[in-house]
Write a structure and sequence with these properties.
With 620 residues, the protein is an alpha+beta fold. 45% of the residues lie in helices and 11% in strands. Among the domains are: 30 residues; 180 residues, Orthogonal Bundle (Penicillin binding protein transpeptidase fold), CATH 1.10.3810. The protein is built from 24 helices and 14 strands. The protein has a 5-stranded mixed sheet, covered by helices on one side. The radius of gyration is 35 Å and the shape is elongated. The relative contact order is 0.09. Keywords: Carboxypeptidase, Cell membrane, Cell shape, Cell wall biogenesis/degradation, Glycosyltransferase, Hydrolase, Membrane, Multifunctional enzyme, Peptidoglycan synthesis, Protease, Transferase, Transmembrane, Transmembrane helix.
């Protein structure tokens, strides 16, 4: 009977056992390894520390430091003195090359050392834990943060070698006053690279990260110096430093030589920031989406562009610009000297037209960074400064007319539109040369009509004037009557076409390089032919005549070539002079932000005097 019951029991248990094995196998199969879970939850494939980017002038001088408030310049471990590495190992993590991220004996040692001093001299966290905290976490004193720190430290040890961890650590830690990493600290406090620091100076800097507030050398120099000496004493105790060298190092005088954030030429720098966005957008295929009529598409493109530019600037790039610092200074001086301390403003653009480089840009007489930049953000009526581009050059291009050809300077009326010449006089038949030099209005309108409105405006298409629309296709545009007008940068850019007949937008940015000098971005512009050689030759003669016998005589000075055109709007609300010398095309605009009459200063011709001051400097 027992045997029978046993068989029955076994028979009944077999399916139960089979089910148990089947379910266990399923659970086991679906279980993930802890390594796989960690890799998914805590990916550590690459660590990119935000670094300071730089903007340089044409001569290589740094003109702007670009960061989010903190500075960091990444150094390879081989470029960091071994003495500094040993200082941190002795003071922070003596078993760094032995443990797997956590050191229990180190915690005990830290408690013992800290109990002997009033301040915290050692933390229980390893260098790997500190790196995890600085890169991924915050400094809250909570159990959750501490647990996360341990997990991140474990992952760092799995994914990175000890030298890689040490390199990241020395570049990540905070040295107070906005300096992150040893190189930024070295430059901030001593104005020299890390490799040029003495051992005493290295130890002084190594004293700061333990408590950047308490050991801030700008506020607590003595506390920092005292900790430096204790660190050096620890080095002696661990056999990393000889006693006699210790005695010499603690007696070395520490003299801070603070560097300041470089922020020069704000007018130009502000424009470069805008051009950088345009460059990245053009290179990354975002230009068309940014101009889309679909708001959702445009917003998505703007967000993507913002992320790309932010990532680029955090990677420690160098933006190489064409800025001529001498010309920039001269331009600002000339503007301030000629318009005085009133509410009259101005803008200046200087382009090296052979290379298409924007070498100087002034956005206002007392411009502050990121404020309204009149050189490229202000759109004003061009007055007679538009005549070379819209009236004379298209007419000569289409007809081949000679500059001594006659045109009527008599009064003009069309459908109740009756513009007058500036003097109010009516002239008879005059040559194109005279009409251009004296800036008569009625001859310009007649040339514009003969060419045809549509054909004349087709030549402006090459210049990328952003706010010229079909609403501007009317007679009054021939003498500068636009709905919005154009910026000084746009108009000066267009005048460069009178150098050789081709147009190519002037660029401030020559290239953007990474820390190894590799070119990441550069413009790929190609010149577009606008005017024939014959037209250019005649236009240059006309522009020259303006400065010799015409309205631009005050801009004249003896040089290889000089030519330009004045522009004045109704009630003298805007004064322009745009012209060329042998190597440069320069545009000057004078006016008020809220257009108002400038007749009181018109006779002094400040726009021409400014242009002359700048151009003489440029051609020296």
């Amino acid at each position: 009977m027992r045997t029978y019951l046993g068989y029955i029991t076994i028979f009944l248990l077999v399916p139960v056992l089979t089910l148990f094995i089947f379910l266990s196998y399923q659970e086991w199969s679906s279980a993930e390894s802890p390594y796989r879970v960690l890799d998914e939850r805590i990916p550590i494939d690459s660590i990119e520390l935000a670094q300071t980017s730089y903007m340089t002038a044409a001569n290589g001088k740094v003109i702007s430091e670009l960061s989010d408030g903190g500075k960091r310049t990444y150094l390879k471990l081989e470029d960091i003195p071994l003495f500094l590495e040993n200082l941190f190992i002795v003071s922070e993590d003596q078993k760094f090359y032995e443990h797997g991220g956590v050191d229990l004996s180190g915690i005990s040692r830290a408690l013992l050392i800290n109990s002997q001093h009033d301040a915290i001299e050692q933390g229980g966290s390893t260098i790997t834990q500190q790196l995890a905290r600085n890169v991924y976490l915050n400094h809250d004193r909570t159990y959750n943060r501490k647990l996360s720190e341990l997990l991140y430290a474990y992952q760092l040890e799995r994914k990175k070698s000890k030298p890689e961890i040490m390199e990241l650590y020395l570049n990540a830690i905070y040295f107070s006053n906005g300096a992150y990493g040893i190189e930024a600290a070295s430059q901030l406090y001593f104005s020299k690279p890390t490799q040029a620091l003495s051992k005493a100076e290295l130890a002084f800097l190594a004293a700061i990260p333990n408590n950047p507030v308490h050991y801030n050398p700008l506020e607590h120099f003595d506390a920092t110096k005292n900790r430096q000496e204790r660190l050096l004493k620890q080095m002696v105790a661990e056999g990393e430093l000889e006693r006699d060298e210790y005695d010499r190092l603690i007696k070395s005088t520490i003299r801070l030589n603070l560097s300041t954030t470089v922020e020069l030429y704000p007018d130009y720098v502000t424009y470069v920031h805008q051009e950088l966005k345009n460059l990245v957008a053009s290179s990354e295929g975002l230009s068309k989406p940014l101009q889309s009529s679909d708001e959702a598409v445009r917003q998505q493109a703007e967000a993507e562009l913002g992320k790309k530019v932010e990532k680029l600037l955090h990677s420690g790039v160098t933006i190489h610009t064409a800025l001529d610092t001498k010309l920039q200074t001269q331009s600002k001086t000339a503007l301030q000297a000629n318009i005085g301390g009133n509410d009259i403003e101005g803008a200046i653009v200087v382009i090296q037209h052979h290379t298409h480089e924007l070498v100087s840009l002034i956005g206002g007489k007392d411009y502050k960074k990121n404020s309204f930049n009149r050189a490229y953000q202000s759109y004003r009526q061009p007055g007679s400064a538009i005549k070379p581009l819209l009236d004379y050059a298209p007419y000569i291009e289409e007809t081949g007319a000679d500059i001594n050809q006659l045109v009527s300077g008599a009064s003009y009326c069309s459908n109740s539109y009756c513009p007058r010449n500036y003097s109010g006089d009516s002239y008879g038949m005059v040559t194109l040369r005279t009409a251009f030099a004296q800036s008569y209005n009625t001859p310009a309108i007649r040339l514009f009509e003969k060419t045809g409105i549509k054909k004349s405006f087709s030549y402006l298409d090459a210049f990328d004037f952003k706010r010229i629309t079909m609403k501007d296709h009317h007679i009054s545009s021939a003498i500068g009557g636009f709905e919005y007008g154009m910026s000084p940068l746009e108009l000066t850019n267009a005048y460069t076409s009178f150098e050789d007949g081709h147009y190519q937008p002037a660029r401030a940015i020559m290239k953007v390089t990474d820390q190894d000098g590799k070119i990441l971005y550069s413009w790929k512009d190609k010149p577009r032919e606008v005017w024939s050689e014959n037209t250019v030759s005649k236009m240059r003669k006309l522009l020259h005549e303006v400065t010799v016998t015409g309205t631009g005589r005050k801009a004249y000075f003896p040089t290889a070539y000089i030519g330009g055109k004045t522009g004045t709007t109704n009630d003298v609300k805007d004064m322009w002079f745009v012209g060329q010398t042998a190597n440069y095309t320069t545009g000057v605009w004078i006016g008020k932000d809220r257009p108002a009459n400038l007749q009181a200063m018109y006779a002094r011709s400040p726009h021409m005097l400014i242009w002359k001051d700048i151009s003489q400097t440029a051609e020296q």
